[in-house]
Amino acid sequence: MNFLKSLATVVVLAVTLPALAQEAVIRKNLGERIPQLQKIDEVSKSPMPGLWEIRINGTDIFYTDAEGNYLIQGSLIDTRARRNLTEERVEKLSAIAFDELPLKDAFTIVRGNGKRKLAVFEDPNCGYCKRFERDLQKVDNITVHMFLYPILGPDSVDKSKRIWCAKEPAKAWLDLMVRDRSLPVADGPGCDTAAITRNVELGRKHKISGTPTLIFADGQRVPGAINALQVEKFLADAK
After folding, report:
1. C-alpha span between 65 and 96 (Å, rounded)
2. CATH of 98-237 among 3.40.50.300, 1.10.10.10, 3.40.30.10, 3.60.110.10
3. Is domain 2-93 given the CATH code 3.40.30.10 in the classification?
4. Residue 51: which of 61, 64, 60, 41 has the closest Cα?
5. Which residue, 93, 36, 30, 40, is CA-closest to 64?
6. How far apart are CA 196 and CA 107, in angstroms?
7. Fewer CB within 10 Å, N side or C side of the chain?
8. H runs (alpha helix) in the chain
9. DSSP annotation of 37
10. Tens place of pLDDT for every residue, the chain, 239 residues?
11. 3-state secondary structure at position 122
12. What is the rounded CA–CA span in Å between residue 48 and residue 42?
């Protein structure tokens, strides 16, 4: 038995060491030849034989050969399965664990029993967000954690602060986005709006580049103004 364990260890090392050596070659060559390339987070074999994946800046994906002689930026497509492997990899890397979201930096909207959970990053000046919010009113038994994410300009920041500082942020938000009503007048200094700054930092960290962006309880991340039926499907899948 000990002999078999030792043999297995030797086999693992025989497979691992060349891979580590190849990774070292890739890191060395790319680092010397493209010094402006940011620090490489990870080097790993891609699904395509002979092609290596280079990951930098957390979720940026490139590809190279075993010697680092060529660098490719673009999507790797599995033509048989008709899958964008690069896109799937980036989505996995940029997934946000729902339980780790800083919910103190969001306000909450509850409908029905509120058992189903959804987090949304939205900008008050986003037209797609308005369309999404109006359709979302059809979804019941849900708790929505609304993260104000003002990325469209200074006016977005101002509106976000006024919503956050309102006596009832959820009502102020729905008045603006669903009912086309004006925002309450700012009460002046005294309201802590640091949460909005933290939301922008969080979104940038996780590469949230557009609004609305939805995060479901299972960590599934969905960009764009999907309709109520699609929201229902993702909520069901997240159980």
Report:
1. 31
2. 3.40.30.10
3. no
4. 64
5. 30
6. 11
7. N
8. 2-33, 85-93, 127-136, 154-164, 169-177, 194-205, 228-237
9. S
10. 554 454 444 444 344 447 788 899 999 999 999 998 878 999 999 999 999 999 998 889 999 999 999 999 999 999 999 999 999 998 888 778 999 999 999 999 999 999 999 999 999 999 999 999 999 999 999 999 999 999 999 999 999 999 999 999 999 999 999 999 999 876 656 799 999 999 999 999 888 999 999 999 998 889 999 999 999 999 999 88
11. strand
12. 17
pTM, two decimal places: 0.74
Amino acid at site 156: S
Residues making up the chain, counted from first to last:
239
Please tell me what DSSP assigns to residue 205.
Answer: H
